[in-house]
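Quarterly update from the structural biology core.
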Amino acid sequence: MRQETRTPENGYHGAECRGCGKALRGHPYYMGKPAYLPLDEGGGQAKVNHYGGFVCSYSCDYRAALRLEQDMPGHGGQARLTPPLSTQIARRWES
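Predicted structure, tokenized:
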């Protein structure tokens, strides 16, 4: 039995960064499997954003969380993340 090649044309979309859209190695977040950074960037495991989805850097993590919070009712004019969330993101990227 021949395995079908996975391409966007046949409905398969691989993992991507939620902040910048960069292609990551691995499966999309909704499949529940890990994703990895490109080999030229170290190839480590991609971190998961507070609201779900893979992110490739601190700035992408912050940007994605802020964009999602701004979409929530009552947060439209928000320019910064709430203090507990910004602290959590900073802690996640310390190591």
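The first helix runs from residue 58 to 70.
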